[in-house]
Design goal:
This protein is an alpha+beta fold. It has 10 helices and 7 strands. It folds into 2 domains: about 100 residues, no CATH class; about 160 residues, DNA integrity scanning protein, DisA, N-terminal domain (YojJ-like (1), CATH 3.40.1700.10. The chain starts with a helix and ends with a helix.
């Protein structure tokens, strides 16, 4: 294909690329504003404007059609002025989702460790699942959805024996508690002891099917266990719990490195 052919092909593709770029921009803008009131108004205004332009084009109302085409700039500036606070929140959310700093993750780990140690001392049973790259939407959809930062006092309140959400598991995604009272699949691994309770089996089951990390606090013994990759690390000392979680979640250490840390090589 000669240079003229490439040029013609490029000129043909440009409009499609422009439409695709605008569509992607609008999609992500609405996606990151989805939990604010701005998304409903913006999507409604956008849909109304598009439908009106298409209608005027179809009816060949050239004057009104050209007028509405010029309103896109006014529409954009009006949306920015009217919904500046919501748009600011949306872009803040975008920045957070794109850059999950290790410092934030370590802070969440600290809160989880504090909660687990407190519940272990009180022999309060708990099951906490930290989601990995494989998302657990089906399980979350069947659970009680939340949206709270990871805080020790919140986790302890959820698993308080008389609390309505204490049964099931808590799921943490991107350093936020996104679900409680989640029902997890029970593990059927041959290495699972028949003496293990439902929480331990569920922890092994969910980590066998995903890349999540699950913590279990036993209400019988007050011990803390961690399941990862379908394997259960039992009786984690409280003074090593933070280091183990940091190795698993932040440093992505191997099973051998975990064994060395726990002195079980």
């Amino acid at each position: 294909m000669n240079s003229d052919g490439f040029l013609n092909l490029y000129n043909t593709i440009i409009p499609l690329l422009e439409i695709l770029t605008i569509a992607i921009f609008i999609y992500f803008l609405l996606y990151y504003l989805r939990r604010t009131r701005a998304v409903f108004v913006l999507s409604g205004m956008f849909l109304l404007l598009v439908c009106t332009i298409l209608l005027f084009k179809l009816l060949n109302f050239s004057t009104l059609y050209n007028l509405l085409r010029e309103l896109w700039i006014v529409f954009a500036f009006a949306a920015i002025v009217i919904f500046q606070s919501e748009i600011r929140q949306g872009f803040a959310k975008l920045g957070t989702s794109l850059f999950i700093f290790k410092g934030q993750q370590k802070e969440a780990i600290h809160e989880i460790v504090q909660a687990c140690c407190a519940m272990a001392d009180q022999k309060c049973g708990a099951l906490i699942v930290i989601e990995g790259k494989i998302q657990m939407e089906a399980i979350i959809d069947e659970a009680i959805k939340l949206d709270n930062p990871v805080q020790a006092i919140v986790l302890e309140s959820i698993f308080y024996p008389k609390a309505p959400l204490h049964d099931g598991a808590v799921i943490i995604r991107n350093n936020r508690i996104v679900a409680a009272r989640a029902i997890l699949p029970l593990g059927h691994n041959e290495n699972i002891s028949k003496r293990w309770g439902t929480r331990h089996r569920a922890a092994v089951g969910i980590t066998d099917e995903s890349d999540a990390v699950a913590l279990v606090v036993s209400e019988e013994s007050g011990t803390i266990s961690i399941a990862v990759r379908g394997f259960m690390w039992k009786n984690i000392p409280q003074d090593k719990l933070y280091a183990v979680l940091n190795l698993m979640l932040v440093e992505k250490g191997s099973d051998y490195a975990i064994s060395q840390l726990l002195g079980r090589v």
